[in-house]
Design a protein that fits this description.
Chain lengths: ~300, ~180
């Protein structure tokens, strides 16, 4: 049990022990959401600001509900309705939010490093809810939580991440988290989207999907991030689907207990066949449920005090 | 190493629990209404032990739950994030007599948090408190219904209850 961080900026800077602390804490918070009264007073009187400069539904709602279940107050702030359009800088916006005594700022931004920048200019705790193609730490935490819940462990598992790795912050955060926890990570997709340079992060890189899925215990699918691609990285969506999409025939060649994950939003018929997305081996909706628990755990841990003290 | 003295050895712990179980049985005639709820880290182990003795007295299984109270504490922002343990409440507390079980009664703040936490699960008919050691120094108007042993302490001392530690006999020690 160890945790003394003020911000959650990325997974890269967390230790395995700290990741496990979040997962253990999340387990208790998952139970809170299963009760008749789904609320605890742990963050009573705290204020959380959702600063989403890039659109998001699931992550924003998940943080919103997480804060509410901890009895914090939450304010949503989105790019289209805000003063960004009027030319205010990120720093000024954040300092204005701080002047309103926000204790936590949950930020999503299209620029990598935006949360790190904020953590240097304001006093509030900063939580990265996705920065460009860099990291999406709470997604990796909820994914690790989901894997551990189903497989009982993470060390030694084979996890294959399939799809657009290059532009995916989910992939980067997952690679950090899973390798720190001892899983063997394989990346697969078109060579333009899965360059060999990822081997430096301690993963295998493959371009043959059947080969990459053969030993997988977890198949982690990613969406093609059209919004981040500046040029066409593969000839057509149809070709991507036929070469890399997860369909029945491909799934039949995997281990029978391999489980399917996807951070959403799912593009049915592109990276995954519609019926597979809804099959018994798919954990996609459980990931959403667990996301709430993981985000409650993160808010709770970041709120923790000034140093170790005896529990009396 | 702090100076320590043993307040209760394994035998004395068991004897204290047996007496507390009989007191619980004496106070609660409607035995079918009673459930035990232990507060981690040590109270849950004590609750299971008490439950076993009580079910022998009543010839009736006594349900035991585990209630983590850390999310309801009033000192969350004064210390590092505490370890949270899963709460397991395999029964409805509404209308039951809930005996909360903790190892040491000290400031009373854990007990207050436990009563708040319990309210989220329903409205018990009665809440009672059983502790292995009452060491005094209350900061809230809280008292125990059942006490294994009263131990006068200085506020700087620490009372440690060690149960089920492999290779170690159960004991309660006072650290100066």
């Amino acid at each position: 049990m160890s945790w003394n961080k003020k911000h959650l900026l990325d997974i890269e800077s967390l230790t395995a022990d700290e990741i496990v602390t979040v997962l253990d804490t999340a387990r208790a918070f998952k139970a809170v959401s299963e009760r008749a009264i789904k609320k605890v007073p742990a963050l009573r009187g705290r204020t959380v600001v959702n600063l989403f400069i890039e659109p998001s539904t699931r992550t924003r709602i998940s943080f919103e509900l997480a804060a509410q279940r901890l009895t914090a107050d939450i304010v949503n702030f989105s790019a289209d309705a805000s003063s960004f359009k009027k030319g205010e800088t990120l720093k000024d916006t954040a300092r204005n939010l701080e002047a309103l005594n926000a204790d936590f700022i949950v930020i999503r931004h299209s620029a990598s490093g935006a949360p790190h920048f904020l953590s240097r200019v304001v006093n509030a705790s900063i939580i990265n809810a996705g920065d460009g193609a860099h990291e999406h730490p709470t997604q990796a935490l909820l994914d690790a939580f989901t894997i551990r819940e189903h497989k009982g462990k993470i060390a030694g598992l084979n996890v294959t991440i399939l799809g657009d790795i290059l532009y995916s912050r989910v992939a980067r955060s997952n690679i950090w988290a899973l390798t720190k926890l001892g899983a063997k990570v394989t990346l697969c997709g078109p060579s333009t989207l899965v360059p060999k340079t990822f081997e430096q992060m301690g993963c295998r890189v493959m371009h043959d999907v059947d080969e990459a899925l053969r030993d997988a215990d977890i198949i982690h699918l990613l969406r093609i991030q059209h919004e981040r691609q500046r040029k066409t990285m593969f000839p057509s969506i149809g070709e991507y689907t036929s070469l890399f999409g997860l369909n029945k025939a491909r799934l039949a060649k995997t281990k029978p207990d391999a489980l399917i994950m996807h951070p959403g939003p799912v593009n049915r018929g592109v990276e995954i066949d519609s019926e597979i997305a809804d099959c018994g081996r798919s954990l996609i909706l459980e990931q959403v449920t667990n996301g709430l628990a993981a985000r409650m755990a993160v808010l709770f841990l970041l709120n923790g005090g000034k140093g170790p003290q005896e529990v009396v | 190493m702090p100076e320590t003295s043993v307040i209760l050895n394994a035998h004395a712990i068991q004897r204290a629990l047996t007496r507390v179980a009989h007191e619980i049985a004496e106070r609660n005639e409607a035995s079918a209404e009673v459930v035990l709820v232990g507060i981690p880290l040590v109270g849950d182990a004590l609750a299971f032990r008490l439950g076993k003795i009580l079910s022998e007295i009543w010839k009736l299984p006594v349900p035991v739950g585990v209630l983590d109270v850390s999310m309801h504490r009033d000192d969350l922002d004064q210390r590092a994030a505490p370890t949270i343990h899963p709460t397991v409440m395999p029964f409805d507390v509404t209308g039951r007599t809930v005996v909360m079980v903790d190892d040491v009664l000290f400031t009373g703040r854990t007990t207050r948090a436990a009563m708040d936490a319990l309210n989220d699960f329903g409205r018990p008919k009665k809440i009672q408190l059983a502790v292995l050691v009452d060491r005094g120094h209350r900061e809230l108007p809280v008292r125990a219904d059942f006490v294994g042993k009263n131990v006068p302490t200085a506020i700087t001392e620490k009372v440690r209850v060690r149960l089920d530690i492999p290779g170690h006999a159960d004991e309660v020690v006072l650290e100066k």
